[in-house]
Protein 1
Amino acid sequence: MNKKKSTSQLTLFIFLSLSLTSSFSSSQTPRKPPPLPILPLPSSPQLQWQLGHMAMFLHFGPNTFTDSEWGTGHVDPSVFNPAKLNAAQWVRVAKDSGFSRVILTAKHHDGFCLWPTEYTNYSVSSSPWRSGRGDVVGELAAAARDAGIGLGLYLSPWDRHEPCYGKTLEYNEFYMGQMTELLTRYGEIKEVWLDGAKGEGEKDMEYFFDSWFSLIHQHQPGAVIFSDAGPDTRWVGDEAGVAGSTCWSLFNRSDAKIGDTDYQYSSGGDPFGHDWVPPECDVSIRPGWFWHSLEVPKSARTLLDLYYKSIGRNCLLLLNVPPNSSGLISAEDIQVLQEFNDLRKSIFSYNLAKTALINASSTRGGSNHSWFTPGNVVQEGIDSYWAPEGNQSKWVLSLNLKKLVSFNVLQVQEPIQMGQRVIEFHLEVLNEEGKLNKVVNGTTIGYQRLLQFPTVKSQYLRFVIDKSRADPLISYLGLYIDRYSILSNLSRTTSHASRNGSQILHYHIESNHSQIAAI
């Protein structure tokens, strides 16, 4: 590259950077308060839930021993006898693999209870396991507490064993009695999981959901409640672990009904929603939800792809890992989880933008205001963030990586405690001719957005927010290299190809900026 060309490139980037930088600040200026949050906002339990990233579902019960998915409710309790059951192993596998909580099917559709309930004999008390004195929920609660991870419970509304099912008042009383046992015997419960699943031709049944929700929040005020319609977290609308490419935590609960899901609405949320109900992506590591001896787990790379399409789209990933008939998580599942964990660490352990020089189109309170400086976007966590001045016509972060860097993953986070704001954004890099090329664009961000694109190599880039519900706030921006996903092996892609809900806009760029001086 000749000297004249290098100088013109440098001049262009200096001009771009200086034109975007706030021109006035004073250390004597009174501190600028944070901008107003934009409604709706998450509750404290919802924030803690979102910060957990991943939860492990544990489907376990008589189905584990009968090679079934939906039990009939008439299987003899004697089939339940997991001779080597070790809840501490379940919890250890979850924690070692990066999961923040475990959720157990305390009662599935067959009505069999994994704790010694006083409302039915169809439980562990009637099984040979632990001579009828066992308590799976109790053992898991103790193990989770000792390991410092959260506990969640699933109590199926549909009960194929209970005789009063179908009698509205009697069954709701029965269900709330069982729920009260679970909420008052086992310490802190982080999540209560409900759904509207019911087979065709089954008895009609009206569930008193509002009463259930009130009971749960009364006994466990720190728990989030999952269902098709919230109130705290919602089903994403499929059991494939994939969220919509546009995914709002905003939602109208009045437009959703438990057991009658509008899949498109659940997947994408509602930019005009009045309620904060973030989505949860549930998927099983195996083809079935319960353990079956002839099934094998998904590969670690498949789980990585699901990670991008769930956590990378503003969701929590709920991965089902069913214990086997011995009462242990199978060795092959553990191996895949370890490989999955290793892949994530390899990709995301270091932010390639960590030491970048960062300028902003404007900064709230002035360019040197420490609360809202653009440098906050490479500090982990959502408590600090970049905020622009109000009433701006453009919102841009310009990064100088100080050297040529190859990357193919963009991570962006919003401080969701201030509301979800960004509607559209894109990423540009400076090419070898001194021109800015769009690499990828996306829509919503929320707690976290991960976008993949063919590998680019550059020193200078711009993150541009094109549309927002209010002044945008960015808490984190990361660049990474993923050498494992299929897309990372592509050298270029056709214009406007789609990947992970983004649009990949230009050919792969291998820029030679070695003669461009650092700014």
Protein 2
Amino acid sequence: MGAFAAKVLLDERRGESSSERRRARAVELRTILTRLGPTFVKIGQGLSTRPDLCPAEYLEELAELQDSLPTFPDEEAFTCIERELGFPMDSIYSAISPSPIAAASLGQVYKARLKYSGKLVAVKVQRPGIEDAIGLDFYLLRGLGFLINKYVDIVTSDIVALMDEFARRVFQELNYVQEGQNARRFKKLYADKQDVLVPDIFWDYTSAKVLTMEWIEGVKLNQQAAIESQGLKVLDLVNIGIQCSLRQLLEYGYFHADPHPGNILATPEGKLAFLDFGMMSETPEDARVAIIGHVVHLVNRDYEAMARDYYALDFLESDVDVSPIVPALKNFFDDALNATVSELNFKTIVDGLGAVLYQYPFNVPAYYALILRSLTVLEGLALYADPDFKVLAASYPYFAKRLLTDPNPYLRDALIELLFKDGRFRQGPAHLWNRLENLLVQGRQDREFAAKDALQPVLKLLLGPDGEELRVLVVKEAVRVTEAITIGTLIDSYNAAPEFLKPLISSGNPAGPFKFSEAEQEQMMELRDQVFRVLQEPEARVLGSRVAGGVTQRLAARLLQQLLRTPPAPGSS
């Protein structure tokens, strides 16, 4: 690592800072970290989510770090299982694979069948001595961090704090009981969706160093050919992943922090299965709303507001001046926003923001960096199947559902800005009903959405103190429909009148009694016919008859109450 650092400093002194040179150094760093073992692999993976610390070339190379090491002897793994669970192997399993089916830096996984139930399970066994090795590595690195903080001025981040954060996360991963609890919480929050699958944990066969969970049959999400051979579509699965990621980020704030393709499987039933819950993170509630606001400011190209958002997101200390950041945001996004936001490639945004974050004194919170990585991974998988895929456009069904059902007024207003100002929701004159219809259509793409759940929020939105713009649109639309029905009926009446009466009605005007052009009359007639066609639909007729029947029953009931009411006795009060 010292030799590598010396090469990087020498490159800077010589002015050799081209993208090609940085890419070569990034490949070299990835190789070194892999060779140094599990602690440094984990550190590299952590750095791959920190655009405030690393240039783009390093982020991309470190993201490819393979979380794997050679397997350790099976005898040691089986001894660990018996020691941790307190039973001999043959009393726990009726069968177990003789060698691991997967190996990672912290442990390896066996496939087994429980003796008492016959259920297939995955048994994850921790690598022997890993705690001591990682503890020593972090102890030495923390000491080095003190020296860097004290003597290296070009490093603005607190290296000791970073090491402490990395160490905390890695040691959390070493506690398999904690990982089981993470899986249980994730399942409770997100597996209510019929498309999301989370394996059950077998607590009687789980300890700090052995984790036993339900076996999930599936294919890694980056194996497109294998997925399609089962009659599934990668894009459908990615869309499920995006909707689930947005729920994790914006609803409950508890999310999977290591969503690489090996941890997400496509099951034969078309479900998306999440695995490996060692690394989890949480988004503060205030930050969830601030993220939506940040996207709204991006839509509006309000770069000053975008820069101020970084205070709310805890990217910047309150005493940092954001005015120099505004031109950098403007320079990037004015070029990127040459279409509607829904057409933007998510990686383009991440790369652009990463360049800005790297140049200025930002400190990106772990939750933000990790969710960016999650969505970038999903978009990367989708781009293999469809080069035109846009993760932001795929997010619109979720945002539409939130607009129609979320009670938070600030969030609702932000979503109105996002959905209505972007071109995706503009059709022709963009009448209110077209907009609401689009929202309902988008919302129904979420399988858990129910239109009845949207009625009360829509009415609150329409009748609330901030709904003046929508009320104006409603009035205009109501007047337009009423006018079309009235004028259309008059035109029909005039056309049906006897010929000898028409001159009297039109005062001798051969063009008729109406001072409208033929085009205007055709538009009115077309609109009126559209309304009548809707009213002739079976559902509309049923609705009308149910309303009329309900009103009739209500009036009849009240009439009978009046007739059968016993008159009060004279003199009673």
Protein 3
Amino acid sequence: MKMILVRRFRVLILVVFLLACALHIAVDLLPKLDRRAARSTGEPGCSCAQPAAEAAGPGWAQARSRPGESAGGDAGWPNKHTLRILQDFSSDPASNLTSHSLEKLPPAAEPVDHAPRGQEPGSPPLRDRAHRPLLRDPGARPRVPPPDPSGDGSLLAKLFEHPLYQGAVPPLSEDDVLFNVNSDIRFNPKAAAENPDWPQEGAEGAEFLPTGEAAVDLYPNWLKFHIGINRYELYSRHNPAIDALLQDLGSQKITSVAMKSGGTQLKLIMTFQNYGQALFKPMKQTREQETPPDFFYFSDYERHNAEIAAFHLDRILDFRRVPPVAGRMINMTKEIRDVTRDKKLWRTFFVSPANNICFYGECSYYCSTEHALCGRPDQIEGSLAAFLPDLSLAKRKTWRNPWRRSYHKRKKAEWEVDPDYCEEVKQTPPYDSGHRILDIMDMTVFDFLMGNMDRHHYETFEKFGNETFIIHLDNGRGFGKYSHDELSILAPLHQCCRIRRSTYLRLQLLAKEEHKLSLLMAESLQRDKVAPVLYQLHLEALDRRLRIVLQAVRDCVEKDGLSSVVEDDLATEHRAATER
């Protein structure tokens, strides 16, 4: 009798399980059957996600119907794209994992009510404004035509004609260039045969070296950028490949997308048709949104427009230590979902209640439906930073910033409690010789002007040893507050009282009315495709902070004397130019 009851119970459990499976399948198939019936009969049916699906492209509905596809199934995925290993943007992964006490961000404020990008003011809205997504582009922006660099009205052209921007680097030997074009770089043009703009072997006018590579002039702009890196600069002042590379970042066809590992926030690695690569940071805040005063510096969002503005500020200061960055509007369906081979990224796409295409990817903290990135309906703005050469070709050394913050809610770093901290730093290699301490001062000025408190590490190219420049990577937490000047960023300058003469003179020049920093930045940023890049109050904050830096240097000179504070590097440059 007991055995019969046990068997009947097992049969009952099996029947319940089968009924549940059948019900699940039926619920899953009903919307499809409803849509098919609507198409065949002409009835409206359920069209709740129809606008977004139409905007997303023909493959969207098909893709959404297979969320349970196994990890090993490749049906319907884009053709496999073979990636070259010529580039890499990442610094030491550990540098992104230092914030162990990150706070969770509350939802950001609603953006200002404007017409969406591409829609004329006064025209009917794309959708009900009650469903306006958060953290989005505030709307259409007036496009100012890019200034003519050669025109008499260009402030940038006049600035770059100034003698302070005409100094030459010392003569370059083989040890002073990152790559020897004929031996270190092996770029075969045949690999880019799918690009119709690339000169083919045997084509009229195509020039090739005896080894089979294309002549340098025929290299893509990202490769010209890599070849131009030397001991003294990431790129030269008048390298035409840099402006061409900025154009490529904003227009080249995207052929592959993958998530970048590490970090607290989502970043995407995008590969272009010419085999260039860039790091994509999506828009998360509107231009006018400030970091709330109660937020810790390590809890802040990374801003895509800060990356763009940092590149232009670095070039105006004549440091030239930030890789080229450009803004771009991305079609999330055609240029991310349809070309990615990253299934973890692909599975996070969804249609929001406002019929916008959204995704959130995978990262340590801010990758969830609550922090999803949503388009209008599938267009999203972001920054694209050109990759540096891959670590297998050009190794980089990661250094802990001596003035690194504690990344803790209560603890303070040593430099915050020890006023003589700089004396200890100057006795420690590589700060005890060479110009590394002066490079730190340049980076300090750069970060203070942006308001960037998140400089925990920096990098240098290993080939050049300690006698080379600092690469200014990862500037996304700059330009977060225009109403507050974080004076603690200037601690290295206050404690060490050292600065290059060339840097000091350029800062004085940029404080003059005819070379006003805010106006120069506004003109430079007008050339970007997502202009205006900075809110006007951020531009005005640059002028205010510049005066604070100059006053800090004057205080040091008054205390220690001009010769002790200002290092005359211009005399060294003059001697090098004379030797040429």
Protein 4
Amino acid sequence: MKMKTSICFVLLLLFSVSSAEDVNVKVKGVTRIATTDENFICATLDWWPPNKCDYDQCPWGEAGIMNLDLFNNILINAVKAFNPLRIRLGGSLEDQIVYQFGEQEDCPIMEKQSDGLFGFSKGCLPRKKWDQVHEFLNKTGVKFTFGLNALNGKENSKEDKENWVGDWDPTNALSLMEYSISKGYKIDSYELGNELCSGGVAAKIDSVQYAKDITQLRNLVNLLYQNANTRPKVLGPAGFYSKEWFDSFLENVGHGVVDGVTHHIYNLGSGNDKDLINKIQDPYYLSKVAQTFKDVSESVKVFTPRAGAWVGESGGAYNSGGKDVSNTFVNGFWYLDQLGMTAAFNHKVYCRQALIGGNYAMLNTTTFIPNPDYYGALLWHRLMGRNVLSVSHEGSSFLRAYGHCSKKEHGITVLLINMSNSTTFRVSLVNDMHTDKEGGSSDAMREEYHLTPKDGNIQSEVVLLNGTPLKLTQSLDIPEMNPKLVDPSSTIKVKPDSIVFVHSKSFRAPACS
């Protein structure tokens, strides 16, 4: 019996030992395949009150904008670290919010209401809260997108309760803009409505009507903001893509009206899906959304080439994300893969739901301590430049690879994501222009940033950088994130369940010169 147990143990050991695979990652550095905005990384703030609950849990706490402690030091430091971070304030309840400006003197508090949109009554943004929001934005240097209520002036269609008809009434938005201009508040962009396009979610607007409404917003912005250099951008339609609705909207909107075509992504399904982790680590499943990114990008190119495609909101799993999944290390396989994929499909901006609030928050909803995806986003923001390069390999599909010109220095930065829990990939970067690896001889050391989960637990809320846990400093600042310096002639060892950013200064790419 003892003998049998020993044999079983040895066999188990043999099977559990991780394998290794050599992979040549080919980078085409002659031309770029796409460009992103300088501030591609974006995070959202939302309107949800504490009693927003799904699956018998209420994960928003005090993180909705009406309750959020905007003067929390960790929050301020986390946002300032991006220098700047792009933030979008919007979400499901946005089309029920009025603003306490102009003739809107009373300011109702949003409450649960069974027949209200998303189960809530109308609410109001008080002038004092708007001032506090801008105090926070000024302090942190944020590039700010504000989502406007697109249902003002509209009413339900008698034939279809979810269909809202009539022209948008811009009076309340006009009052908010006039006040903001009088106070010198900086707004990067205005977005009209939330998830009202295609089939809608709780409400919908016809594509031709929406084109008319957003043209009215454009005219309003042009009228109020005289200086074209500092004029806010106009974004829309901020919902889920369907070719018919989007093409009709873009055909009817006219050139120069929209600066960013925003669409939303929740491609992992519901937050309570027991299969969530398997989906996140399944390269085939993750690739299914690529067609959407391609289609949106092509529609924009055909109908409004001056505008860019944006992912305006994306939380992975809907209804506030997956508990003990969306806020942990494993979610980075989905999130960073999304960043790489959308950039390659010529998307300009990617807004992660949410900076704080829900299970998918980048900062812990109660302590504000950064979750693993915060650090992944910050490394992307600091390392990945605007020019996107073609990257490919013929190895396992569990190794994802994306490449950009480096942001501030010479060379390229490659993102390598190893979704396998048993295989180490020994990666060589191959320059498509040369037969030599890493594209040229140089004394410059290669910089590597290896992200792994604490104790090898992919559901850990603690991420290690080159083996050291990333923790706030004693003064509650974001820690320094220094690379490991490696001889460029050696291979890049991408361990199982790890994410690696590689900055190669010696890689000669004409697209990056």
